[in-house]
Structure to design on (969 residues):
């Protein structure tokens, strides 16, 4: 099992979510996050006053998937989240040792 | 041997822990209470008598206290007993208490029993709020009646009617603590029916104060009949819900969770499904609001009741405001008791005074207001005096939120704006909207006021300064108060609300412009947040369209402020700095758009063009292309041209390149090129034209949102062979774009064979301007120079070699002078903003502007 963390542009959330639902992904956790990478923050000026934006708003999605589904899921996120411009985000993939559904105690793939 | 039947739950208590549950008649919780208490009484008496017969015990008296004492016993309410004994006989009590409690506990009843002497009771009641209040509700059950009589004689005289103000203070503290505990938004969605705001505990608090202060058990006797009838209904509703909650959960559950909201609503006769739940919860919130107002009102009366000496002093300090009102100690008093009835418009004067003097209403004034409500009629609602005063209050902007809240609590707001009563208590059955719609609206107004007062200065400095500078603040407040008014309908609440606001505004004497502005804010109150969160703010088109909807800077400011207030008033964590960064980005980009307002006109024209297209294209095609045609493009072409372009674009599926022309004069033609956009496309087209000795007089290049490039060129040929050259152009372009022949090779060949010398003509000043101010999305490069064959190719190639993507260009030739404007972005889709990059770009383009000339001459 793998954990996929994707940092994407906020307005891409619906599109990515719909694309993932279409290929059968059943659940994910979404968080509003802020950060910066190559696309740095900036300072906005309005009527002479400066408003600093150090961190840019992004959406972080986390989902767990089986090895078989991994490629498809990652490709789907990549395709749907892409605008081709700076700040499109990143996808991180890491191994997951175990998944447990608290209510039933199911483990492994059944619990995803 | 004496027959000794085991103690069992008899018929009346059979509901408890039994599989067959007696349904509670939803209409009459009182009947249920009576039945329940009576059977509990007989069970407890039986137990008590049996215990007394089993062990030698001193004379005692058994008293029911708390809710059981009041006879308001819910299915699983706890049962509080008090065993009163003569001071000297203490040691023999514990065995008796055990004999009473154990059998009851064995039945699964939640019974507690304290044993005290009369003296202890009185002493404890003086120091302990809980003991005091539970004693207030005491009821004789069994044993020595004389003890009971003595206790209550002394309790009433020495405890209850003493220090009433202190009792009120303690209850007010308790109320504040409870409210704080339950102010978590989760409790607004799943309220605690007993302890929450306006819950049953609040009603008790009010009742206890009435007992203490007015020495009567008839709480309704000190209220207006209308008021007490509504209160009675509210409390009965809560009781009914609570009884169901206990029955269904099988325990003393007071949290009205979603699970039970869904189960109880149909039992109480509400519609099945979420609508029924919403209706039930609406009634619930209306009930708790009434109860909460009742408790606060009664507490206020006692807390602000001055001593007789102070009363005299205040009377002397009293300052007359006008013929009807006076002010003393921060409270407005009524001089003329029938002032409102004689002239109901005085109600609004009262509110204006409250604002002006930052004063509260004396409780008698509040009563008088409530009494006058039936006089708030159509005449009142359309009275110029009233409406001017109301908008005057909004315009002043000081203390508006508490004043509106007070108007609402007294029922005045709903009389003045009847539409508002339709959203009162209405809830959304979801997790996001925490408060009922009316409370949400009032909170939104409060948030705007807090913003203006600087409460969020560190968090949102920009919004704070906007709140202070916004024009027509009264219209903003008016729209904020009514932004969700359409939720009483089944239609899109923004649109329905806007229509209602227009009507309300007209009735309240707003000018048409003011009404329309308020209606605009209501109709668009979700646009800013959906645009900020769901659209690409780096897409110029998104900002254009948004700006087009918003129309001007002041409306943009108002909408940003309304959006803030709306989200903030949703409750909990709804407002985040994350959301604000996106909203601020949208605000700043759009405000800069308005500041360069010169470009607003062609855009409006673009929108008109879209409408005209509806005639010539099927709605299916139109909707496919509507979002990807840039306004800048729409403003450049006639609807017929655009319809034709869309046809061309649709045939791109079969052919990768379409080149069309119309020969206009013998030597001039308009050439349209349609293909998929790719890097360096413009440069390759201009190169191919150069190759075929076509001089470009004018050009418009556009990139559509769906990746189609649509370019129009006006070209000239001085050799009289335009048709042949255009045919050759089409052929060359096809080969160049398919990558078969690199254009540079062709151009080299071409140059070698070019022996024609250019004519000597007056020099034109060369200039390359790089402008980063006029667009948030593109760097604008303006090139002025001398026209010559191939110059456009030189320019576009220079830009392309520099790594720029040309998004839009406008090329014109004035005599021998060219004025070329390019909208470019770097490979990341960003502007070229770094100073050294800008300088480098300027040098590169300038060099080509000069060097090309040298090559030619």
């Amino acid at each position: 099992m793998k954990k996929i963390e994707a940092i994407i542009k906020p307005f891409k959330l619906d599109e990515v979510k719909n694309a993932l639902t279409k290929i059968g992904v059943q659940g994910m956790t979404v968080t509003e996050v802020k950060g910066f990478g190559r696309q740095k923050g900036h300072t906005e000026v309005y009527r002479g006053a400066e408003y600093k934006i150090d961190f840019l708003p992004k959406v972080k999605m986390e989902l767990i998937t089986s090895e078989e589904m991994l490629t498809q899921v990652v490709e789907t996120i990549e395709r749907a989240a892409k605008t081709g411009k700076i700040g499109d985000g990143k996808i991180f993939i890491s191994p997951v040792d175990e998944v447990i559904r608290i209510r039933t105690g199911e483990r492994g793939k059944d619990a995803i | 041997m004496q027959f000794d039947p085991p103690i069992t739950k008899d018929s009346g208590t059979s509901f408890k822990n039994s599989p067959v549950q007696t349904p509670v008649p939803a209409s009459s919780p009182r009947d249920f209470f009576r039945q329940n208490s009576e059977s509990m009484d007989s069970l407890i008496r039986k137990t008590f008598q049996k215990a007394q017969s089993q062990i030698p015990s001193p004379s005692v008296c058994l008293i029911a206290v708390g809710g059981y004492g009041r006879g308001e016993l819910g299915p699983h309410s706890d049962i509080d007993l008090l065993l009163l004994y003569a001071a000297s006989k203490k040691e023999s009590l514990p065995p008796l208490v055990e004999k009473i409690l154990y059998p009851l506990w064995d039945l699964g009843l939640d019974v507690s029993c304290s044993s005290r002497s009369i003296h202890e009771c009185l002493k404890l009641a003086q120091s302990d709020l809980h003991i005091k209040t539970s004693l207030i509700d005491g009821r004789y059950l069994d044993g020595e009646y004389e003890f009971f009589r003595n206790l209550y004689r002394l309790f009433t005289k020495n405890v209850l009617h003493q220090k009433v103000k202190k009792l009120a203070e303690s209850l007010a503290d308790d109320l504040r603590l409870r409210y704080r505990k339950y102010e978590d938004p989760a409790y607004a969605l799943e309220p605690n029916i007993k302890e929450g705001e306006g819950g049953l505990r609040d009603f008790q608090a009010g009742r206890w104060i009435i007992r203490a202060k007015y020495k009567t058990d008839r709480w309704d006797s000190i209220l207006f009949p209308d008021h007490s009838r509504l209160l009675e209904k509210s409390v009965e509703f809560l009781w009914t819900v609570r009884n169901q909650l206990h029955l269904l959960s099988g325990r003393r559950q007071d949290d009205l969770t979603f699970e039970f909201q869904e189960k109880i609503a149909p039992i109480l006769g509400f519609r099945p499904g979420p609508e029924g739940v919403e209706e039930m919860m609406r009634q619930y919130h209306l009930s708790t609001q009434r109860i909460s107002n009742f408790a606060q009102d009664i507490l206020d009366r006692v807390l602000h009741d001055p001593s007789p000496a102070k009363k005299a002093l205040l009377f002397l300090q009293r300052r007359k405001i006008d013929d009807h009102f006076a002010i003393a100690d921060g409270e407005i008093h009524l001089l003329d008791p029938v002032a409102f009835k004689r002239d109901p418009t005085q109600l609004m004067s009262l509110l204006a005074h409250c604002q002006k003097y930052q004063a509260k209403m004396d409780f008698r004034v509040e009563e008088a207001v409530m009494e006058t409500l039936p006089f708030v009629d159509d005449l009142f609602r359309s009275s110029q005096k009233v409406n001017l005063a109301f908008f005057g209050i909004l315009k002043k902007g000081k203390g508006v939120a508490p004043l509106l809240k007070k108007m609402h609590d007294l029922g005045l707001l709903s009389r003045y704006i009847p539409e508002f009563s339709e959203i009162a208590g209405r809830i959304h059955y979801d997790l996001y909207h925490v408060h009922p719609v009316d409370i949400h609206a009032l909170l939104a107004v409060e948030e705007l006021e807090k913003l203006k007062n600087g409460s969020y200065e560190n968090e949102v400095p920009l919004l704070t300064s906007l709140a202070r500078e916004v024009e027509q603040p009264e219209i903003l407040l008016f729209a904020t108060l009514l932004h969700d008014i359409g939720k009483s309908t089944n239609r899109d609440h923004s649109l329905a609300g806007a229509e209602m606001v227009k009507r309300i505004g007209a009735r309240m004497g707003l000018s048409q412009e003011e009404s329309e502005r308020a209606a605009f804010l209501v109709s668009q109150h979700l646009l800013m947040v959906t645009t900020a969160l769901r659209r690409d703010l780096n897409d110029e088109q998104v900002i254009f369209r948004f700006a087009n909807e918003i129309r001007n800077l002041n409306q943009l400011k108002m909408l940003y402020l309304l959006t803030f207030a709306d989200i903030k008033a949703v409750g909990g964590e709804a407002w985040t700095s994350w959301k604000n960064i996106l909203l601020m980005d949208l605000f700043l980009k759009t405000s800069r758009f308005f500041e360069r307002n010169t470009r607003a006109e062609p855009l409006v024209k673009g929108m008109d063009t879209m409408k005209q297209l509806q005639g010539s294209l099927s709605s299916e095609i139109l909707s496919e292309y509507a979002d990807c045609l840039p306004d800048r493009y729409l403003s450049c072409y006639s609807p017929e041209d655009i319809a034709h372009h869309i046809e061309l674009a649709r045939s791109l599926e079969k052919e990768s390149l379409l080149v069309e022309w119309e020969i206009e004069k013998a030597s001039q033609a308009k050439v349209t090129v349609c293909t998929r956009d790719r890097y360096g496309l413009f440069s390759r087209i201009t190169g191919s034209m150069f190759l075929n000795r076509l001089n470009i007089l004018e050009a418009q290049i556009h990139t559509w949102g769906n990746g189609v490039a649509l370019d129009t060129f006006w070209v000239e040929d001085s050799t009289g062979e335009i048709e042949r050259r255009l045919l050759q152009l089409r052929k060359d372009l096809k080969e160049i774009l398919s990558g078969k022949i690199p254009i540079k090779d062709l151009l080299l060949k071409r140059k070698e064979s070019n022996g024609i010398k250019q004519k000597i003509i007056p020099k034109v000043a060369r200039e390359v301007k790089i402008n980063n101010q006029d667009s948030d999305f593109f760097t604008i490069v303006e090139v002025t120079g001398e026209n010559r064959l191939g110059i456009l190719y030189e320019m576009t190639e220079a830009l392309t070699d520099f790594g720029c993507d040309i998004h839009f260009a406008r090329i014109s030739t004035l005599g021998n002078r060219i004025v070329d404007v390019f909208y470019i972005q770097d490979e990341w889709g960003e502007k070229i903003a770094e100073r050294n990059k800008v300088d480098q770009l300027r040098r590169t383009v300038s060099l080509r502007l000069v060097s090309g000339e040298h090559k030619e001459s």
Observations:
- The longest strand of chain A covers residues 56-65.
- The domain at 2-111 of chain A is CATH 3.30.70.120 (Alpha-Beta Plaits).
- Chain A has a mean pLDDT of 89.
- Chain A touches chain B through 21 residues (CB under 8 Å).
